[in-house]
Design a protein that fits this description.
alpha+beta, Herpes Virus-1, four-stranded antiparallel beta sheet, 27% strand, flat
Length: 679
């Protein structure tokens, strides 16, 4: 039925539906969307890939996963492959594979999903198709069961309208001020939010005191006493910059996480190799010990066999002698018997003479043999079980050494992620970079350095995936530099008694120059109205016009500084001064009181301290140029460890270090800047 052919009743119903407030329509949509989102998140999302199920497989324990995810999980479990079962990633319960002879890649596909899960997926996907179709059809006509092609979009009502409904929409008093746009520009229309209390009002303001969004009526009623109520429109630039900086931070975090994953994977592979090597060594040691035991066994058995053979030989000899003696005595008995039965006196006399003459006696032979050979009387083996067990318990086949990550004061290890060449196309001299700082300008990470030899400030950044460089020439050689605000740095030019302010866009633009009475070599911003400036044997506190507010030279009548040429401010607002002249680091309050001083310990001797910075948790990182090291100190000035040692040559060295908000460390060498991340 065409819109023109509707009956009066249908037109009344149509007007009623059309007059339905946008809030009701939006609330119904939000409720439906919320329900669909809960169903999808709680019942249709794989807990491994966190996406909607693809070829779902439901295990015996009723947990469901994508077939692809299940297969990947099985392949990480060699025990499961060996036992031909599918372990559940959630509860570890095993599910038998119907056809384990098939390749492992097909195991998960053999497990069928439940009818309910599959039905929900089919329903959800059909709803998505309907929604896709409905986005091109008139919303009002769809409520009447019709599918009329949509022509325009109302951002206020959040509905699409056909030509007929557009005409009605434009003549309705409560809707005639609504802006309508083409469907093609639907995504570009600014979304408006209605106040939850004053339904007809838009939320256009933000109270910074209360931290709440508000409409005009809310501002009049609830925020009259608040001092900072601004329009959301005026916050746009700040919010955009903050979000871009946040996005850059998250990109860096992703970069760190990705690098950590790579390192963990490398460690996994290395661990497998090390474990396999250790297993082989353990088996070799045990095999050596077993061979030694077998050698001892053979030795004992051989000794026992030799003694047993000797003893058996002796016993056999004794038996033979006894048999010979028995035969001899038997012969004598027969001779005597013959003499006794004879009546002849001479026979008796002969027998008597033989006996009296001492015929060969076997005892003499036995005694002679016994004198020549030690005779074995008895052989037995007494096992020393207790001693053997004690020796085995104390047997040291080797040691398994484990090193653990220090979760205390030590920072994680550093991994090099990038190297920035300090050269720029029109440089006259080789770069000599002294100071480095890093800003995030409109979401672009910008590395800013001072170049002593080329008398300029340089910036390095990436724009449209292209590496870019900017150079700002100065009147003379720059030294110290520090960040003034989100888009500005200040640079000390001592030979011309200047402190210049440079805007970072991220290209470099000279904003202003102030002239001082003293050569300043280092700078640090204490607060929005004052800064610290280091010069020969002194640190001055200046206002932003360069006027000296006070000077810090001594403490308790002792000189504090010689060359305070590198400085920074820690998380507590105290000033950290690195002095190469007295090889020390001193922590001062802004009034000049010494909090602590670090000069030398047995572990961390300083030879030529230069750049100094702090991390977000307060750790102090210090460059020692002569030893080519970055040293870590605690916030209270205690030595922790050598955080980084770099390869060096006689011509280049480190000068400065900077740690940004995301935890990346930038190390400034003479000709380049190296970027590291903590892993």
């Amino acid at each position: 039925m065409r819109p023109a052919e509707r009956t009066l009743t249908e037109r009344v119903e149509f007007n009623r539906l059309r007059q339905t407030t946008p809030e009701h329509t939006a609330s119904r949509k939000m409720a439906t969307a919320g329900l669909e989102r809960k169903v999808k998140d709680n019942f249709l999302t794989c807990s491994i890939c966190f996406e909607m199920y693809t070829d779902p497989c439901t295990l015996k324990c009723d947990h469901t996963f994508c077939s692809k995810c299940g297969t990947s999980y099985i392949q990480t479990r060699p025990v499961a492959v060996q036992s031909k079962t599918i372990p559940c990633p959630c509860c570890r319960q095993d599910t038998k594979v119907p056809h384990p002879s098939r390749p492992v890649e097909e195991w998960a596909a053999q497990v069928k999903p439940s009818i309910i899960i599959q039905g929900l997926i089919d329903t959800y996907r059909s709803e998505e198709d309907v929604q896709e179709t409905s986005s091109t059809c008139c919303t009002i006509c769809q409520q009447l069961g019709e599918t009329t092609p949509a022509a325009l979009w109302c951002a206020e009502c959040e509905v699409v309208l056909c030509d007929k409904c557009v005409k009605i929409h434009r003549v309705t008093p409560t809707l005639l001020n609504h802006d309508l746009c083409d469907l093609s520009s639907r995504s570009k229309v600014k979304r408006s939010i209605k106040c939850t209390e004053h339904k007809s009002n838009r939320v256009e303001f933000h109270c910074q005191d209360c931290g709440k969004a508000a409409c005009q009526t809310c501002c009049i009623i609830y925020h009259r006493a608040c001092e900072a109520v601004i329009t959301i429109e005026s916050m746009k630039a700040g919010m955009k910059a903050a979000l871009m900086e946040k996005r850059l931070g998250m990109e860096k975090i992703l970069k760190v996480r990705s690098k950590k994953v790579d390192i963990r994977n490398e460690k996994l592979q290395s661990n497998s190799r090390i474990t396999e090597s250790a297993v082989q060594n353990i088996r070799l040691v045990c095999k050596t010990a077993i061979n030694k035991f077998k050698q001892k066994e053979t030795q004992l058995l051989d000794e026992l066999n030799n003694l047993s053979q000797t003893y058996a030989g002796q016993l056999r000899a004794d038996v033979k002698l006894e048999e010979i003696e028995m035969q001899m005595y038997s012969q004598h008995c027969e001779f005597i018997d013959q003499a006794l039965v004879s009546d002849c006196e001479m026979d008796l006399y002969d027998a008597y003479q033989v006996w009296e003459s001492g015929a060969v006696k076997m005892e003499d032979v036995r005694d002679t043999e016994a004198a020549d050979t030690r005779r074995i009387d008895h052989i037995w083996f007494t096992p020393d079980t207790d001693n053997v067990l004690k020796v085995l318990d104390n047997l040291q086949l080797g040691e398994i050494d484990v090193t653990y990550q220090d979760q205390g004061t030590s920072l994680p290890s550093l991994v090099l992620v990038d190297t920035i060449d300090g050269r720029v196309a029109d440089d006259d001299e080789e770069s000599d970079l002294l100071k480095v700082t890093v800003l995030v300008v409109d979401g672009v990470q910008t590395c800013v350095v001072t170049d002593y030899n080329n008398k300029c400030v340089k910036s390095y950044f990436t724009r449209n995936s292209q590496s870019c460089r900017s150079k700002l020439p100065l009147d003379n050689t720059p030294h110290g530099m520090t960040q003034l605000n989100e888009k500005q740095v200040i640079v000390a030019v001592p030979d011309f008694l200047q402190i210049v302010t440079v805007e970072v866009t991220p290209d470099l633009v000279l904003l202003s120059t102030i002239t001082t009475r003293t050569k300043y070599y280092s700078l640090a911003v204490l607060n929005p109205s004052s800064l610290a400036a280091g010069t020969w044997k002194c640190v001055d506190i200046l206002d932003m016009a360069g006027h000296v507010l006070r000077s810090i030279t001594t403490y308790n009548d002792d000189s504090l500084f010689t060359y305070p040429f590198y400085m920074c401010v820690n998380t507590k607002g105290n000033l950290l001064v690195s002095d190469k002249g007295i090889t020390s680091v001193t922590c001062l309050t802004s009034e000049g009181n010494v909090v602590w001083s670090y000069a030398f310990t047995e572990d961390g001797e300083l030879t030529f301290p230069c750049g100094i910075t702090t991390t977000s948790r307060g750790d102090i990182l210090l460059v020692d140029r002569h030893t080519h090291k970055v040293i870590q100190l605690t916030e209270s000035g205690d030595y922790v460890r050598e955080l980084l040692t770099i390869e060096h040559d006689d011509e280049t060295g480190m000068s400065d270090v900077y740690c940004d908000k995301c935890g990346f460390l930038f190390l400034c060498k003479d000709t380049e800047v190296k970027e590291y991340m903590f892993v």
